[in-house]
Each structure stands twice: as structure tokens, then as C-alpha cells.
Give the backbone structure.
Amino acid sequence: AQRVTQPEKLLSVFKGAPVELKCNYSYSGSPELFWYVQYSRQRLQLLLRHISRESIKGFTADLNKGETSFHLKKPFAQEEDSAMYYCALRQGNNDMRFGAGTRLTVKP
Amino acid sequence: DTGVSQNPRHKITKRGQNVTFRCDPISEHNRLYWYRQTLGQGPEFLTYFQNEAQLEKSRLLSDRFSAERPKGSFSTLEIQRTEQGDSAMYLCASVTGDYTDTQYFGPGTRLTVL
């Protein structure tokens, strides 16, 4: 069955430290993966998608098909990065499967 | 605000009552999704529309749930004979038709069934 796993519900780092939010997936086809973010009192929004291979707000994510992972990384965390982060897998054209999310707290 | 809107933002109802939620997508988006999110979980896919056609429904969508999108614009999600387990945040997202396929989420409707 298709599944997205985010093993850490909570992650806390100090400002300036590197951060890595883990995401593992199981999917038999060719995956399309995303990271969505929800800042406090804001709606869920797209952060980045693996197809774009871009860096957004200093975050990058590399799809590793061998390890079936799509970890989100940032070399130097900022306080404004504190938010809820969801990894998501799109199956076909219509079904988006989300992980349970990781709450990132960046301490000053 | 030209983003996705949802109404009401909060709904408290008694078990057994029917409730209806509305989603107004971004005007040029022809695809619309409904999700349910319970505490500590990510959004769970419920159903999907391409224009007015409902193309897919999750097994989570029991026969007490029905969704419509008349004329391919706004959408409604109705829950009949609500149960306490229906308490959740109901999210709507509309999707661009371009290559990015980005989902734009609404603020959600929080349902509490007493």
C-alpha cells in the first residue's frame, strides 16, 4: 500500500543549526513527492516539489529512490522556519497521500 | 483575498444532525479536492472533482458523505447523520491546471460533533 512516513512528530533545533526532516515513502510506481508547510495561523501551502529540484527558503529535498526517502534539509535554520511540515506523495493524477507531519521548532 | 475560501470556519453540531460545508476555489482552477484532517495526522484525501465531475472518492467517504460541484465552480460537502468520529478539520484545495499542479488550500472548516 502507498504510504508516507514521517518518523519524527517533533523536532527542535537551535537557530543556525542544520535541520533535516525525514520522509520515507512506499509506492510501486514512479513517485511524485512534495513538502507542504503550515506556519502558525496560516493555511497549508506548498514548499517544494521534487520535480522542480529547486531551493525554497533555503530548503532542499532530494529524492532517493534506493532508500525511498525524500528528506527535507536546510543548512542553517531560522526562527521563522518554525512550522508544521508535511511530506506528500501523489499517486496518479488525483490522490495525494500526506504524512502525519513534523513540528519543527527553531529556538533562538 | 483571492485564495480558496471555506465556510463556515467552525461548526458545532449534535450527533445525528446533517451538516454542509462550502468551498470556493480560485476562479480559474478546474480541479478541486476535499481532505479530512484529524488531530496529529496529515490531511487524508476524500474526493476530487475535475470541473463538475466527481472523478474519485476515497473509501473513507462513507455513504453518509456526499460532495457536489455544480457548474464546476464552488463545491459542497455534506455529512448526514453526523457521528462523533466525524469531528475533524475539513480542508478544500484547488489546483492549477499548469505543469506545476500546485494545490492551494483553504483555511478549513473545523467540525465538532457533540
Observations:
- The CA atoms of residues 27 and 61 of chain B lie 26 Å apart.
- Chain B touches chain A at residues 3-4, 33, 35, 40-45, 48, 55-56, 58, 91, 93, 100-108 (CB under 8 Å).
- The radius of gyration of chain B is 13 Å.
